[in-house]
TrEMBL record:
CDD domains per UniProt: CAP_bacterial
Annotated protein name in UniProt: Cysteine-rich secretory protein family protein
Parts of the chain that traverse the membrane: none
Keyword tRNA-binding assigned: no
Source species: Corynebacterium kalinowskii
Leader sequence residues: 1-21
Short name of any one Pfam family annotated for the protein: CAP
PANTHER family the UniProt entry points to: SCP DOMAIN-CONTAINING PROTEIN
Length: 151
């Protein structure tokens, strides 16, 4: 039903010349199970870099290897419906933050910033790059994993 409504709204917008560019909604996780979650990953990366800049730290570059690893672990967590730190994470990166059952990427980052250990990871002056993976399942909502490394 949501897809039908979205299609109808888009068709009306094109017909009447309105913009169909969506803005990120902080109120609800904006993606359905199985959709491309790249936008959520980019949102988390932007938030982390914004927070770092606000604290006078350099922004982190994107590391595709860390992102692929993060995405894989997020998908594994979603499939198992259980989130834990990746036992291989410290072999791949210097730091790892994981989160589960937040309504949206913004809430996940806020949760990390309200946790001293996760906040320390985000604000580490030693981190040089990051990779982020997001997965979602129907049972509990979003699973988020972010890894950063001093690469």
């Amino acid at each position: 039903m949501k897809k039908i409504i979205a299609t109808a709204v888009a068709a009306l917008a094109v017909t009447f010349g309105a913009s169909t560019v969506a803005t990120p909604a902080a109120e609800a996780f904006p993606f359905a199970v199985g959709e491309n979650l790249t936008a959520a990953e980019a949102d988390i990366a932007d938030q982390i870099n914004g927070i770092r800049a606000a604290h006078g730290l350099h922004t982190l570059g994107w590391n595709q290897y860390l992102s692929d690893s993060s995405r894989s672990w997020s998908q594994t967590s979603a499939a198992r419906d259980h989130l834990a730190h990746d036992p291989m994470a410290l072999q791949l990166s210097d730091m790892e933050n994981v989160a589960v059952m937040y309504n949206n990427p913004r809430d996940a980052v806020n949760g990390w910033m309200n946790s001293p250990a996760h906040r320390d990871n985000i604000l580490s002056p030693y981190a040089k790059s990051m990779g982020i993976g997001v997965a979602k399942n129907a049972a509990t909502g979003g699973y988020f994993v972010t890894m950063r490394g001093a690469y």
